[in-house]
Amino acid sequence: MTLANQYNEFINTKKEVLVIFLLILVTLLPARAQDYQVSLLTADPGDELYAAFGHSAIRVLNRDTGEDLIFNYGTFDFNTSFFYIKFMRRTLDYMLSVGSYGQFMNQYHWEQRAVREQVLDLNQEQTLKMVGFLRENYKPENRFYRYDFFYDNCATRIRDMMEEVLGKNLKWIDPNAPEEKTFRELIDEYVYRLPWADLGIDLALGSVIDQKASEREKQFLPDYMEAAFSRALIEGDGPTRSLVKSQSVILDIPERTYEGSLFNPYLVMWVLALVFIGITFWGYKKQRLFIGFDVALFGALGLLGLLIFVLWFFTFHSQTKYNWNILWAFPLHLSLCYGLLKAQPKEWVRKYLFVALILADIAVLVWIFGWQSFHPSIIPLLLVVILRTNYLYYNLNRLKAAKNKVSIGLNLKNTG
Q: What is the pLDDT of residue 226?
């Protein structure tokens, strides 16, 4: 072998060794992490009750591939069997869904709801951990969860994820002068535009929502969580920094003004009260009771009380417990209707009227002492219940006497 051949063989051998070394090095080194940007998206409230409190979602943008996804904890399957029964009893599972950023924005543009973005200042390890957390949660066996409006919803799920991913590095900063608010007051901030929905919520939810909400508990509302994110810090992994690196409005929709309607609970209830005051006065002057009005009134209150009873004792909603609206909207008012419709009302009817009067008076005391906040439009309705139970209690015997007199007169006529 010539010297030139020996030299070429040596060079080729070195090349082979170098290639093998590089292959081993590439195998041992971790693959380059994808370049992700993670953001919190907050949408303004919408016109419908289900959208009245706003919405939160997580945006994950892969800047290497351009993939732009929205992770949304606020979805459920309408095709679920017995959907409405499960929804009422709180046995309906919500789920984490994934969609494109474009679809998400188109939906909110169509609904005319502004959307704001807060880009999170996470390091690479924290970003990958969050993306991995979301992917793990999106697996079919993990994506469903039992929704709770105050403690486990589309906003709190994101908050809990942040605490899981960042651990002790995440520090929530409360506002300098936090305003004390109950859960009911927090809800009222969003449903004032929907007066009938506001009334329905106050009728359905019990005294448990009249307790003060901590700053952390306020984060069940997307707006409050957005504010909490803007104050939060990341510390312990280098210089302390804000959780939010930048924030912007990505869908700017002017805030709309809402005009009140004359058809609202306040006007309707006071008109109803005036009607009952009028028929009570007229009945007193004309020696009549107008039982038909009472059957309609207590029938409606009995049905409402039955609903409150079911929500309290036969659902898994924690917020419908200890609902003292049941004191004036009592299920057994339905039996009162039955008793009043009898040709000769029994003595128990009069006794029940006295009990109903006492229960309505207790409801007033519950309100005065702040044990539960009732909807303001209930004031005239409570007055009507107190007025009619009191009037019937003291005048029901007159109905009996009048009916007996008519009966005796008919008998004498037939005898003659």
A: 97
